[in-house]
Amino acid sequence: MATKNTASDEAFTIERHGDVTVIMATPALERLSFRLEKQAADLILEPIKGCDHPLIVFDLSRVNYFGSMFLALLIRTWKLVTARGGSMAISGVTARTRELLRVTSLDIVWPIYDTRNEAVEALLLD
User: Fold this and answer.
1) What ranges do the domains of the chain cover?
2) What mean pLDDT comes out for the span 101-120?
3) Residue of higher predicted confidence among 27 and 90
4) What class, spelled out in words, does domain 9-125 have in CATH?
5) Could you tell me the end-to-end alpha-carbon distance of the chain, in angstroms, rounded to an integer?
């Protein structure tokens, strides 16, 4: 029996690249409603809770905009990752999303790379 994807499932694609988990935001993230915040958080955070030294890359190359809900999710993820002894990076930001990260001073919290591959390589070397 096929299962229907929820909007939170469609907002992210999660891949493993060796020891690095890459969370790719899709354009559906731009339409994600606040009532789906918990589902999105569970999708991202639950797998990290069981990891020691998680290495996480958020690939934002397919997203032009995100709001406070996603910023809160990034912060929650970063706090969990660092509490578990890991590292987190951002890749593929557009000019608009880079400005949002700059205005919130989050651009100094996480390293930002042009491409997902650069971010994965940097985390593996760290």
Assistant:
1) 9-125
2) 95
3) 90
4) alpha beta
5) 43
CA distance 25 to 62: 7
Contact in structure between 71 and 34 (CB atoms under 8 Å): no
* Higher pLDDT pick, 85 / 64: 85
Token representation of residue 57: 């890359």
pTM: 0.87
Q: Which two tokens stand for residue 40?
A: 């999105």
Residues 6+ apart with CB under 8 A from 78: 88, 109, 110
| Under 8 Å between Cβ of 119 and 23 | no
Residue 45: which residues within 8 A CB-CB, separation 6 or more?
Answer: 76, 77, 80
Could you read off the pLDDT of 53-81 as tens digits, one per residue?
999 999 999 998 888 888 888 999 999 99
Identify whether the C-beta of residue 49 lies closer than 8 Å to the C-beta of residue 37.
no
3-state secondary structure of 2: coil
Positive/negative CA dihedral, 67, 70, 75, 76: positive
